[in-house]
């Protein structure tokens, strides 16, 4: 497993990471035993970066990861945690809280659930409009000094916020959606990160399964994609047509659509680490196969022709969420 450094001052991590969100109900029910086995298989394959959020399953995801890691040597993995999103007992999403006092509370519970004495990368999941980002980052910096956090990251924020945060403390990476059909970061956000020496951990590299080559229209209870614009009737058909053009390219390279899409993200720069959302070992194995795929200039040109920038139908989130995403304030709707 090759390594990539997250930013100018960040840690070295595997060239691909595991996003664990889908193991806690966001895509419908998941098998606990298989999820833990997938985490173990991930580590055995040399993947070192595990990503979660304290609000995934209202703490379920952290407890699951904690169970999987309880007998694993601490130097074999790094954990990236997002905080701030509020939930209610029914599982509904509520307000967002990135106040320093709230952050310390979230961190305390995260450490307990994971069974760790420090978090490798800690990040606010979104920008809290009621709290200056400098206050949030400054408070996390205090946790770095205290030894509870090693590095500070950001998530789904725009260029101005990135600059303000980086003026307070070094930022190792920005976690943000980036895929063949979500390329909005290329306009402003990615250049800003590169200017400041900030890496990218790219989630949604398969567009939540839409460009995995395995998407089926049937959805299980609890699957949040039922509300996603790109999966709605009238949009999903156009998006799946793009997948079929990718399938032809994949066949020519004797690979899969998923591997092609992951390899494309990885090929956009050594400062980008794709996060794969596998919750089963077979999907993990397929995703890891992307690491053996080297895309040629001809491949990249063919992919660009098949899925040109802005080709996707529908926004990546529903209108309510799009309205509060700081990252969307700096990108063109045509390229997001």
From TrEMBL:
Keyword check for Ion transport: no
Region (Disordered): 311-336
Keywords on record: Oxidoreductase
Composition-biased stretches (Basic and acidic residues): 326-336
GO cellular component, one term: cytoplasm
InterPro entries linked: AKR, Aldo-Keto_reductase, NAD(P)_OxRdtase_dom_sf, NADP_OxRdtase_dom
Top-level taxon: Bacteria
Pfam families with a match to the protein in the record: Aldo_ket_red
Residue ranges constituting the NADP-dependent oxidoreductase domain according to the UniProt record: 15-306
MF GO annotations: oxidoreductase activity
Protein name as annotated: Aldo/keto reductase
Organism per entry: Acetobacter aceti NBRC 14818
């Amino acid at each position: 497993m090759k390594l990539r450094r997250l930013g100018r001052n960040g840690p070295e991590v595997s060239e691909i990471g595991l996003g664990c969100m889908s193991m806690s109900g966001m895509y419908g029910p998941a098998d606990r035993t298989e999820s833990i086995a997938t985490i173990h298989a991930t580590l055995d394959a040399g993947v070192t970066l595990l990503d979660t959020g304290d609000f995934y399953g209202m703490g379920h995801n952290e407890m699951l990861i904690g169970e999987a890691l309880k007998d694993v040597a601490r130097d074999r993995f790094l954990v990236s945690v997002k905080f701030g999103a509020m939930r209610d007992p029914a599982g509904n999403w509520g307000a967002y809280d990135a106040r320093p006092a709230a952050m310390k509370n979230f961190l305390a519970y995260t450490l307990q659930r994971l069974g760790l004495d420090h978090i490798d990368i800690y990040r606010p999941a979104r920008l809290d409009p009621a709290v200056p980002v400098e206050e949030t980052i400054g408070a996390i910096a205090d946790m770095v000094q205290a030894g509870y956090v090693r590095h500070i990251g950001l998530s789904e924020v725009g260029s101005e916020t990135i600059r303000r945060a980086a003026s307070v403390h070094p930022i190792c990476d920005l976690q943000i959606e980036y895929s063949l059909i979500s390329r909005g970061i290329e306009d402003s956000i990615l250049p800003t990160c590169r200017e400041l020496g900030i890496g990218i951990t790219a989630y949604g590299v398969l567009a939540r399964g839409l460009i995995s080559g395995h998407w089926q229209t049937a959805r299980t209870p609890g699957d949040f994609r039922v509300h996603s614009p790109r999966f709605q009737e009238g949009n999903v058909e156009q998006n799946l047509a793009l997948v079929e053009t990718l399938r032809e390219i994949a066949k020519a390279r004797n690979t899969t659509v998923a591997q092609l899409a992951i390899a494309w993200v990885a090929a956009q720069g050594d400062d980008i680490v794709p996060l794969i959302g596998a919750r089963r070992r077979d999907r993990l194995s397929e995703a890891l196969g992307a690491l053996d795929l080297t895309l040629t200039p001809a491949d990249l040109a063919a992919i660009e022709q098949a899925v040109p920038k802005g080709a996707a139908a529908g926004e990546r989130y529903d209108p309510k969420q799009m309205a509060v995403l700081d990252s969307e304030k700096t990108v063109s709707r045509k390229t997001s």
